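Q: Convert this sequence to structure tokens.
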Amino acid sequence: MTFPEKMSAMMELLKIVDTAELVKEKSYKSWTSFDGTAVVTTNSNEYFIILELLAIDNSTIASRFSRKTIYKFIEDRLPKIKRTGDAPASAEAFFAELLEQKSTSMTVTVPISGIRLDHDVREFELACFKFGYLQDLEVPLANQNGMYISTVISDVYDKEIAYEKAENAFLNFGKLIVFLAGKQDKSILIETGLPLKPDMSHELMYVSTNSYQVRDGNGFMSTADIRTKTIEKIPVNDPFFISREQLGKVWGLYERKHAGAKLQDLEARILNTALALGESASTKDMRNSILYTCIALEVLFSHNDGALFQKSIGQNVADLFAFIVAKDVNSRKSIAKLTKKVYGMRSAIVHGGDKEMSNENVTVNYFLRGALTELLTAERFKDTKRMSTIYDMMQDAQYSY
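A:
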């Protein structure tokens, strides 16, 4: 369908009625006017189909603006077109106002719970993120005391897109903090938005309170308990988290990616593996934790050598993993066996099997952190840019007998 055909189809789905008759219309969408009439949709399902077709007609518009913004732009103009019959001849003419907009940079700031600044610091920057106290903002974001996180989104046309990209960046910040901390006990909680988690002290925040009741097999109560959960806030200006050495090099990688730079193959794999490991260590669902461990493994190690007879993905991943992180034959065998076992649980989850789950992926997460440290700091990988090079190194080692 051409743009005029789509617009014509949309006009056929709209009709003009008296406002007094509006209550009789079973329509999802209506636009009232001061002249006592309203434009209403006659078929909601078809209306949404045509609305989407109009929204994606121009690829430039679809790439620069969110669906929310595009839908509003279209819907704001439909009543006038229906009333006047003056339909635009092309998508370019219809979206001219949006197409003329210039890109800009937007700074997105939101409240954040779970972090702190030590040593009386009021403002701090880490990679592409800035932190401070809400009460220090020119226009506070909340009535309560707390902290904020902000980031700059460059080359953007739509504030809705800026919000989406910033929220994704804030989530990634939390994942990288969990990854760098190396803790697998769900003891780190970083959240953006309101309401903020209440402070218990400078170091601690309140998370939740729950009550528990446990009865034995005879129905007699054996335990009753009320538990309050508090969590230590992360000191984001502590040298442990801000160092750009060893695993801290991921901050530089993320900063470059956030700025729009294209990372080399191995750099992108390292960063995305760190993010997946952060998610695996954060989620409370064991199945999701296992899946993200396996995503981390595949992101870092998956390799297709184009051979006619290839090993399974799990075998390839296990071999590369063991080659990078282990130092002797027995360790390599042990890591490969564990990796394939965890990968087997992943297959059971994805394919609906009933294989018993375990948290052995936590051990794989630990070794994966070691693998990333090796890739970022070891002399043998200093000039390596691609995982395929490491695969060749592994094959050389395997055939050196």
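The chain has 15 helices and twelve strands.
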